[in-house]
Amino acid sequence: MNRVTKSILFGLMSSLVLVSCDDDDDDNDMTSSNQGNLTVNTVGLESLGDDYEYEGWLIVNGQPVSAGLFDIDANGNPTATSFTVSRSDLSNASAYVLTIEPSPDNDPAPSAVHILAGDFSSNTAPLTVNHSSAIGTDFTSATGKYILATPTDGGDMTDELSGVWWLDPMAGPGPGLDLPTLPDGWVYEGWAVIGGTPVSTGTFTAASGADNAAPYSGSVAGPPFPGEDFLMNAPSGVTFPTDLSGQTVVISVEPSPDNSAAPFLLKPLVGMVPSGASDRTPYDMNNNATATNPTGTVMR
After folding, report:
1. 279: DSSP letter
2. Residue 255: is it exposed, middle or buried by C-beta count within 10 angstroms (0-12/13-18/19+)?
3. Is the pTM of this model over 0.85?
């Protein structure tokens, strides 16, 4: 092969390489131009552990489009705040919804556990729990009262300060709680924090009627209201019967299915039991919703 032929071949090969590189650059530019950035800032969320994650969803033409997964790290910071999303979905989204999803998750659709949501106004959506696509209430209207008593112990009057019941003895008795109705994916749960250890009294969805469990109560049926006697089967680090004087009782809002055996971050009602508490005396709870409701902002 002479030098002229080699020169021609070399020129042709160089041209092919340049064309190929230009084509790749065009493809990358087109891909980049079709993607946009979604920034999610939240306050008040907590880690969901190894088995659950938060997932964001853009509502586009009435349909949910996944907009990324994240959790909260040990320092209370989100593991991600910036997410790459289709520009078309970003511009056409009317709202953003944050859900709690199992991890791993085999269902491409959102779960029923919606914790925050907000509508876009221009390029920003403020996130709240009381949005209709989240929980639908901020719990600031919730009220509660409780008594200390052990009605399941068969009449033993020596341990009356070892049980808590959310009822009002002056109303018949009647319910001691006034709570908003929860959507699917959420339940209420009662707690007594005994020596720093939260002990569940069971989950429920209505202020009247027994809750779903009585693992610590005695053999006699309790009243038809949420509550628990702490008489047997004490968890590790706790002794039953106990004295709830000076302890704390809590009503939390829990995801269902639940991500943890501990109380969830939403704790709308908290009661500090008086140090000199009397049995069968109604005590009011404090509304704590504003302090525990998470919030956020989404920017596109």
Report:
1. T
2. buried
3. yes
